[in-house]
Amino acid sequence: MKTSISIALALVAALACAHGAAVAKQGVSLNPMVKPMVWPMPSIGGDFISEEIIGGTDADPAEFPHQVSMQVSMLWIVEQHICGGTILNEEWVLTAGHCVKGVPWYTSAFILAGKTNLGVKEAGQQRSAVKKMFTHEKFRGGVGPYDIGLLHLKTKLVLSDTIKPAKLPAQGAVPTGQATLSGWGSISTSQELVMPKQLQKLDLPIIPFDACNDAIQKLSDANGEKNPLVESSNVCVGHLDKAGQGACNGDSGGPLIQVVDGEVVVIGATSWGYFPCQAEAAPSVYTKVSAFVDWINENIAPAH
């Protein structure tokens, strides 16, 4: 039995490394040190340690009941968190398009809801296999616009104090002010991923598009690359004058939220950023959910 498990784990590791390399190649190189890229997903079978997100703090139990962990399973032996997601209702989860496209063909996807610590079984947590996955028809993969996806769950979630949906913003709304990101993404500012067990949270200012665009354009011009930021599709958060706070690998697809009149509104899905994460001052880029509310509602309608 031990030999069989060892062989399976070796196969998983080899395939995961190949998959990680393929995802990493989707990045757009700006300079030899810092690159804008859809963050490579954590390696299947990778270790988690108890540390904080880059500049963040531990979330309290049930503080983010809309948050899910999107995971993949290999041979029912190895299961691994790869992305975040936001509960929209009992059977639909919002995530990033690159999370959907990044699910390895040799795995099956599922979600865990009602989670704060991925290292322990928590009271009230629920699991559902993903029945079907959707990406926007204009999403081409890698760093770019239309990076949005939906997960249709096989088993409906039972809503509770620890499992609740977030509301969608108004179609076309322009987010401003402060926002909160949450996730189980890497807390490392180097190329070596360091994954936390505990859900992390961080409040960051929304960067006006013109300021974010100017910052990214300067980096792009340095190496003659095309600026991948698109106003109609993206929203930026973070600080342009200091490093050390932001999203990273494993946060992809997860929620960027604001609380409006006491209700949680999901305004962004983690899309791309600069790697190594927060090694230098740079924005984290999210898919602007308000640009896709009509698309979301069309796809989660009962006919689907």
Automatic annotation (TrEMBL):
The keyword Membrane does not apply. GO terms for biological process: protein processing. PROSITE patterns: PROKAR_LIPOPROTEIN, TRYPSIN_DOM, TRYPSIN_HIS, TRYPSIN_SER. Residues 1-20 form the signal peptide. The keyword Protease applies. GO terms for molecular function: serine-type endopeptidase activity. It is found in: Secreted. This is Trypsin-1-like. It comes from Thrips palmi (Melon thrips). The gene is LOC117647043.
